Amino acid sequence: MKAFKDTLLYQVVNLISEASRLGMHVISFDCVTTVLHLMGFNPFGVFDSNINLAGVFSSLVYSGWIVNRTKSFKRYLLEHAFGVNEEADWGKMELVDNLGNGLLYATWGVYILNTLEIQTGIAVKSLFSLGATGTLVFSLASKDIASQIMSGLTLHLSDKIYQGDSIELEDGTSGIVEDLGWMQTLIKGGNDMVTALPNTAITNQRIYNLSRTPRSQVKQELRVSYTEAANIPNFLAAIKEEIKKSCPKLVTDGSSPFRAHWTDYGEKYLMIVVNAHFYIKPTGNEYWDNRQQVLEAILRAATKTEVHLEKACKPATSAWTRPNI
Fold it and tell me: Please, which residues have CB within 8 angstroms of residue 73's CB and are 6 or more apart in sequence?
């Protein structure tokens, strides 16, 4: 049996209750303005003008309430349309939700402007009274805000990233997209620190979306002594065999390299590079578990062929192939 809060009756009663409370606020505001007028309190001469304060207040309050309820209903429809079980669907839902919110707020802003009659009223007169310096400051600030909003709109429409995606930027910033806003984007790093980046800083550089990269790479550089040279062929074959046994998602169809090769003569050691690709995204626990399996497979191969690995084995810096997005 559903809880009362989950029933349609509760939603209807809740809407009526909210509308009634707003009506009480409007009536209270009207009473207060009437009393102030009768007491002779007339700031800025508003009571001598033709402005209907109670009407303006009620229009703003009720329109704001309608916008808020529309947002909630839109969110409800989106959750049922996209579903929230799949991460990709969740990201798309957040994208559409943000675009819908932007449209709602823009419509509400136009309605407020028309209601207050800013184009011919007090607000425009006050704006022009700022003078040349004030107008310049306002223009520069508006330009920056408009640039941020346009960058946010570009990110939303470009379909490059969704909320919840794991990304890496060209400047080295990496993490999970916590929030994709109109002015800025929040990215949570591996140390749980959240970085707020202006949208203009993101749109002006390359974005590498790890969540949409279907394959990952594990590349390891090994060093062995010159005295082990005779065992290297067996060691390389054993590495491949152990990795195939341990990693079922290894790419072996030739579309990506799977190599274990003796690559160079070093000053003191012989250089070996192991390079393998997998049908695993380069992010999350599955990637790191698989990487550990590769390292363990290399160690088993060294033990089996009695090859001693020298210290300072250097891992490759890139664990994935950067996509062009």
Answer: none
Query: What are the CA-CA distances from residue 285 to residues 8, 99, 275, 282 (Å)?
Result: 42, 32, 20, 9
Number of H helices, E strands in the chain: 8, 8
**Residue 211 vs residues 144, 165, 176, 201, 242: alpha-carbon distances, Å:** 31, 6, 9, 21, 28
Which of the 8 DSSP states describes residue 85? S
Write down how long the chain is.
325
Beta bridge partners of 174: 168
pTM above 0.70, yes or no: no
Q: How far apart are CA 288 and CA 294, in angstroms?
A: 10
Distances (CA, A) of 205 to 155, 165, 201, 211: 12, 17, 7, 18
C-alpha closest to that of 258 among 277, 239, 235, 244 = 277
Q: How far is CA 234 from CA 7, 278, 299, 301, in A?
A: 70, 24, 14, 9
Per-residue pLDDT reduced to its tens digit, 175-219: 999 888 878 889 998 888 998 888 888 888 888 888 888 899 999
Q: What gap in Å lies between CA 282 and CA 166, rounded to an integer?
A: 9
User: Whole-angstrom Cα distance, residue 217 to residue 205?
Assistant: 24
Q: Is 275 exposed, middle or buried (0-12, 13-18, 19+ CB in 10 A)?
A: middle
With a pLDDT cut of 90, the percent of the chain lying above it is 27
**Rounded mean pLDDT of the chain?**
78
Do the bridges between strand 269-278 and strand 259-265 make them parallel or antiparallel, or are there none, so unpaired?
A: antiparallel
With 0-12 CB in 10 A as exposed, 13-18 as middle and 19+ as buried, what is 11?
Answer: middle
Q: Tell how strand 216-225 and strand 269-278 pair up.
A: antiparallel
pLDDT in tens, 11-62: 777 778 888 888 888 888 778 877 777 776 665 455 555 566 777 778 888 8
Q: Place 124 in a pLDDT band, splitting at 50, 70 and 90.
A: very low
Cα 76 to chain center, whole Å? Answer: 21
